[in-house]
Amino acid sequence: MLKPPHSQPAIETTDPRVQRSRRMLMDALVKLLTEKEFADVSVQEIADEATLNRATFYLHYPDKDALLQATTEARFRELIARRGLSFTDCDGALRAIALGVCDYLAETTSCPSQLSQMPLENSVISLVEGMFQEGASAHGVEPSAEVALRGTAVAWAIFGAARHWFLTTERLPAEEMAAKIEVMVKPMLLNASH
Amino acid sequence: MLKPPHSQPAIETTDPRVQRSRRMLMDALVKLLTEKEFADVSVQEIADEATLNRATFYLHYPDKDALLQATTEARFRELIARRGLSFTDCDGALRAIALGVCDYLAETTSCPSQLSQMPLENSVISLVEGMFQEGASAHGVEPSAEVALRGTAVAWAIFGAARHWFLTTERLPAEEMAAKIEVMVKPMLLNASH
DNA sequence: TTCTCCTATCGACAGGTGTCGAGTAATCAA
DNA sequence: TTGATTACTCGACACCTGTCGATAGGAGAA
To answer: Is strand C within 7 Å of residue A59 (CB)?
Structure first.
């Protein structure tokens, strides 16, 4: 469900030991996910795979959902960065974001069967939301409830569409899908953004 | 996560014992949710509250998430039915659905603090999706990948917007919000539906 | 180096989970 | 009513969870 305690604690630490432990835990989870479902992975297994003690796991994440969340977020951020997403051109950004989400789903969930489930969504959607906020403020659109609402709705629409695409057999190339999503979703932004 | 086994098994049984047990489990969960967080509710507590054996719980649902899912779906269906949502007028339907989702979130999650989390979404979104399918086919729009995609994206957008609204302090009346959502989301449907 | 702070380790704990086999009781059809 | 079927109960099982206190061990500053 929700992790109010260390919801976003897993960031900002310079201590190399901490960095190392967290990376090892993430890598361990990713490896285990190529072998079995998330639900079938225990904290003990993750700790073993990471060559860390189980108690150490709980020093960093409240439970395995939080680790999945953090891992997901890190991978998605990296993917976006690798694509060199810049918000200098407003027009390309929408398609790029859609493409990023499609790519992300296709890449990180192709392993066992359908990991395309819920815990992933929280982090990805809120990241996409953040991108819209960023993009809007970068272009002088002052933040308002209206803008925030539209950003949220668009983020959810994009994720929902990308997920739909991902769950489809015989799917189109990601680029085509991203273009489709762009034209479908763009009208939602036109009334209130600049 | 996902429950492939009895994902939608909780339907269609005439045996009164089954009906009774499932209803008692749902009612028990609803009652317990007024007292504590979902994460803090154990299967044993649910069974006790329902005056059923714990093993009986597992005869009906694979875990407590599945019960929450089923309970959620039942409540949302009932709410929609109570509002007398009809799809005879295409124009009102969109706003009515948005209103239904807002109502739903406001009603079922006001109890402890924030239950507005993930397990709920699956069922509600797919229900809304189903409504679009239904509405489209009722008006002679032949089913296509395009229509399905738009329905999905709209469902996610509505849910995301309603959730955003729900998590806002000082929120507008649900009716106003639903109207806002309608105008925001409607353009997504215009190109491909009739 | 030495000292301090923080992280990682270890063993153990009370509790929860999901499943099983065997027995009881309710339902439905013949 | 009888008999077959199915739901429910019960106790027990191995395992996982989240947390604790005590201890060892690196990182960085004095």
So the answer is: yes
Least confident piece of the model among A53-57, A72-76, A144-148? A72-76
| Backbone dihedral angles phi then psi of residue A21, each to the nearest 5 degrees | -60, -45
Q: What is the 3-state secondary structure (H, E, C) of chain A?
A: CCCCCCCCCCCCCCCHHHHHHHHHHHHHHHHHHCCCCHHHCCHHHHHHHCCCCHHHHHHHCCCHHHHHHHHHHHHHHHHHHHCCCCCCCHHHHHHHHHHHHHHHHHHHCCCCCCCCCHHHHHHHHHHHHHHHHHHHHHCCCCCCHHHHHHHHHHHHHHHHHHHHHHHCCCCCCHHHHHHHHHHHHCHHHHCCCC
Name the helix (H) or strand (E) containing B71: helix B64-82
Residues comprising chain A, all counted: 194
Give the largest Cα separation in chain A, rounded.
54
The Cα B151–Cα A179 span in angstroms is 17
d(Cα A65, Cα B26) in Å, to the nearest integer?
Answer: 25
* Mean pLDDT to the nearest integer, B172-191: 87
Which two tokens mark B149?
Answer: 């995609």
Identify nearest nucleotide to residue B45 by CA to C1′ distance: C16
Task: Give the lowest-confidence range in A94-98, A105-109, B163-167.
Answer: A105-109
pLDDT at residue number A59: 95
Q: Which residue has the tokens 């995301």?
A: B160
CA B14, B127, A108, B162 dihedral sign is negative
Contact criterion met (CB < 8 Å) for B160 and A157? yes
ipTM confidence: 0.76
Q: Which two tokens stand for residue A65?
A: 């959902």
Say what the pLDDT of residue A116 is.
Answer: 36
φ, ψ (nearest 5 deg) of residue B46: -60, -45
Q: How far, in Å, are A53, A60, A61, A62, A73 from residue A8 at the CA level?
A: 22, 11, 10, 11, 11
* Whether the predicted pLDDT of B11 surpasses 60: no
Compare all CA atoms of chain B with the CA of A154 and give the residue at the minimum distance.
B157
Residues B191, A184: Cα–Cα separation, whole Å: 8
pLDDT tens string A148-186: 999 999 999 998 898 888 878 788 888 899 899 999 998
Q: Which residue of B has its CA nearest to A162?
A: B153
